Amino acid sequence: MRVTGRAGAPVVVLAHGFGCDQNMWRLVVPALERDFTVVLFDHVGAGNSDLSTWSPERYSTLDGYVDDVLELCRELALGPVTFVGHSVSAMMGVLAAVREPEAFAGLVLLAPSPCFIDDPATGYRGGFSAADIDELLESLDANYLGWSGAMAPVIMGNPERPELGEELTSSFCRTDPKIARLFARVTFLSDNRADLAAVRVPTLVAQCSSDAIAPPEVGAFVHAQIPDSRLVTLNATGHCPQLAAPEETAEAITAFAGAAR
């Protein structure tokens, strides 16, 4: 865990998504630390986390990660925080805020997806069919490094800026394949749609204008399900706006977190 920014200021906690680590926030931190105490951490199994604390039993569902988030908030002892969750971490934030709402001044759900799989029976569009996800996970299981090289540019988008996809590929490749395989299943097979309505803290849903992983319909769904939430569509494209459009991402976080004081 790393704490930076203004001491005594409102606290913003930045939580990264699958295959990433806290380094993915480095371009937004300078703007945030002018007004906030900024907390960065690596999920267990990522970055510089203690791999010895990872176990398949604890991290076979999002609940293990949610426990970690709440333990982090208690350890900080800095009062309610604004939790910024990217991708799968957005749902960690949702579950944590439902469980202990008093720990949170607000949630920023950045490129969130409560369910990646389409549900024709309800009309929900997650962006992938069940067969798509099965194929994705089979490919990851068979050749994680090859999957990383193929999928990272798709996730990142912005094909005119190949260096972004290369950075995400490198991040994926730094993750232990055994841990990545289980985290991928947790990420792509979880369905948290029913949890959204129980959120009672101020929430900003920040979606990208074009995202192959979490299409705009998903952001609209999350916004519609969380009472009194706000929705902003960033001009950013791809699934990682904190890298592709850091200034715009930081501005959205700052405007919301400042209002939530």
Helix-strand layout with pairing:
Layout: E1 2-5, E2 11-15, H1 29-32, E3 37-40, H2 62-76, E4 81-86, H3 88-99, E5 104-110, H4 130-142, H5 144-156, H6 162-173, H7 177-189, E6 203-210, H8 216-225, E7 230-237, H9 241-244, H10 246-259
Parallel strand pairs: 2-3, 2-4, 4-5, 5-6, 6-7
Antiparallel strand pairs: 1-3
Summarize the structure.
This protein has helices at 29-32, 62-76, 88-99, 130-142, 144-156, 162-173, 177-189, 216-225, 241-244, 246-259, and strands at residues 2-5, 11-15, 37-40, 81-86, 104-110, 203-210, 230-237. By secondary structure, it is α/β, with parallel strands linked by helices. It has a seven-stranded mixed sheet, sandwiched between helices.
Describe this structure in words.
The chain has helices at 29-32, 62-76, 88-99, 130-142, 144-156, 162-173, 177-189, 216-225, 241-244, 246-259, and strands at 2-5, 11-15, 37-40, 81-86, 104-110, 203-210, 230-237. With 261 residues, it is α/β, with parallel strands linked by helices. It has a 7-stranded mixed beta sheet with strand order 1-3-2-4-5-6-7, sandwiched between helices. Strand 2, helix 1 and strand 3 form a beta-alpha-beta unit. Helix 4 (130-142) packs antiparallel against helix 7 (177-189). The relative contact order is 0.17.
List key phrases describing it.
about 260 residues; alpha/beta; 7-stranded mixed beta sheet; 10 helices; 7 strands
Mean pLDDT: 93
Span between N and C termini?
23 Å
Strand content: 15-25%
Secondary-structure element order, as H and E? EEHEHEHEHHHHEHEHH
Uncertain residue ranges: none
Please give the radius of gyration in angstroms: 17 Å
